[in-house]
Amino acid sequence: MKNYIKANYHTHTYRCQHAIGTEREYIEAAIDMGIKKLGFSDHIPCPYKDGYVSGIRMRMDEAPEYVRTIRKLGEEYRDQIQIFVGFEAEYIPEFFTEQMHMFKNLGCDYLIMGQHFWVSENTGPYTGSVTEDEGRIRQYVDTVIEGMKTGYFKYLAHPDLINFQGLDSVYDWEMTRLCEEMKEMDIPLEINVIGISGGKHYPTERFWEIPGRVGNKVIIGLDAHCVDNMVDVENYENAMKFVEKYNLNLVDDIGL
Ligand SMILES: [Zn+2]
Ligand SMILES: [Zn+2]
User: For the whole prediction, is pTM greater than 0.85?
Assistant: First the structure.
C-alpha cells in the first residue's frame, strides 16, 4: 500500500499476555501492507525478587524463545521484509542492569522506552492514571531523561502517556523540558497509533504542539497488539494529522 507506514518498530506478541496473533501473522500482514522494516518490541520481562509474577509481560525465562522465534522468521522472510527483535522497556534502575545483561546475551537489536511505570508494576502507580500531582509529572520527566542517558533506547514510545490534569503551565513546563532533552539526545518521540484506535488519552494535542515548537524528531508507532493493528490505515492517517498540524519532523529510520 502506497501511503502507509514503511517501518514499524512497535509490535507486541502473545507472550505479554495482552496481545494476540502469531508472529507469522503479523509479518505476513506487514508484507501485504508494504511495510519494509518490522521490529518486534514486546514488553521486557522484569527480574522480580519478591516472587511477583506479571500478568502483562513475559517471564525472564521466556525471552530466549521469543528472540529465537523471531530470528528464524526473519531468516525465512528475509527477501520480503527486514525483521528486528527487541523490547519495549521501562527504565527502572532496580531491574535495568539485569535486563541489559539479558538484552546483550540474547543479541537483541534495539530497545524503545515505554515508561508505563517508574517503580515496579506491583507497587505502581501506572503512568497513565490521572493525576494532579506535580511531583509525578516531574518524576516521569526526570526518569525518562535519566533512562535515555544510558544510551540504550532508540526512541520514546507514547511520550504523552503521563496523564497530568493539574495546571496547564506545569504540564507545558515539564513536557517542554522533556522535549528539549530528547532533542539534545537526538531521540525521536512516538505518535502512538493504538492510542488513537483505542480511544486512550494519548496522543494528545496539548503535547504534540510542543515537539512542533522544539523541533523534535517524531516517529509513528503502530504499537500492534493484534494483526488488525498492523493494517489500521485509518488511524495511521489520524496519526499523520498530528504531523501535518504541528509541522512535525517525521523520521522512520532509527539506525538499525
Ligand atoms: Zn507502551
Ligand atoms: Zn507497546
Answer: yes
